[in-house]
Amino acid sequence: MQARGRLIGLGVGPGDPELITLKALRLLRESPVVAYFVAKGKKGNAFGIIEDHLVPQQTLMPLVYPVTTEVLPAPMSYEQVISDFYDAASVDVAAHLDAGRDVAVICEGDPFFYGSYMYLHDRLAERYEAQVIPGVCSMLGGASVLGAPLVYRNQSLSVLSGVLPHVDLKRRLADADAAVIMKLGRNFPKVRQVLEELGLAERALYVERATMANQKIVPLDQVDPSSSPYFSLIIVPGERWQG
């Protein structure tokens, strides 16, 4: 009986190609199949990170999202469309695994930190050998380029989604020693308003596409809410402690 291939979740870091780990780079080059998530008509950030490290004999497997941020007409729902997509992608990946080929699924940042890989992992890891290689996640890349220590001593860090309703976001931020707010994009105006209401706007730091070639750091009050991209985040560092 032919041995099955391994499913490898490969974190490739937040954008700077030099932030990929040595282990991720080795497994990337050794994998006969390299799968990557990508929006229609685009190359994808994760693929751009690893493109120069690929070898000619590898099979590339783009997993093209059917939707990203667009509004779908009723009765279609984003949740159902994207769930069906992950089901189909899992079947395609499993075909390679059943044929004995390892599949490296590359993931920007870390596979288990808002990474699309996790949805394949949930569907396949109970049936196939799975290995996950951690990567530098976007919030750590963001803290580094902003020069902002996240938490001191006994402080706790809250990681929040900008998609949260206004009331929930405000409640969680009010209780946080320090926070990272992800998934901004069209949610930016709401997030900035909450920060202003809590008196946190002056402490808050904003960065777009941290560590990427087109990285942009902008004071929070100067951000154009109509142009804040999905790959942006806000850090509210913990209060400084002079140790």
From TrEMBL:
Taxonomic lineage of the native organism: Bacteria, Pseudomonadati, Pseudomonadota, Gammaproteobacteria, Pseudomonadales
Keyword annotations from UniProtKB, A to Z: Cobalamin biosynthesis, Methyltransferase, S-adenosyl-L-methionine, Transferase
BP term (GO), one: methylation
Protein EC: 2.1.1.130
Keyword field contains Coiled coil: no
One Pfam family hit: TP_methylase
Any GO molecular function: precorrin-2 C20-methyltransferase activity
Classification via InterPro entries: 4pyrrol_Mease, 4pyrrol_Methylase_sf, 4pyrrole_Mease_sub1, 4pyrrole_Mease_sub2, CobI/CbiL, CobI/CbiL/CobIJ_dom, Uropor_MeTrfase_CS
Species, as recorded: Pseudomonas cremoris
Assembly and binders: Homodimer.
Tetrapyrrole methylase domain sequence ranges: 6-219
Top enzyme category: transferase
Pathway(s) it belongs to: Cofactor biosynthesis; adenosylcobalamin biosynthesis
Protein name stated in the entry: Precorrin-2 C(20)-methyltransferase
PROSITE patterns linked: SUMT_2 (PS00840)
Protein family membership: Belongs to the precorrin methyltransferase family.
Gene3D superfamilies referenced in this protein's UniProt entry, alphabetically: Cobalt-precorrin-4 Transmethylase, Domain 1, Methyltransferase, Cobalt-precorrin-4 Transmethylase, Domain 2
Catalyzed chemical reaction(s): precorrin-2 + S-adenosyl-L-methionine = precorrin-3A + S-adenosyl-L-homocysteine + H(+)
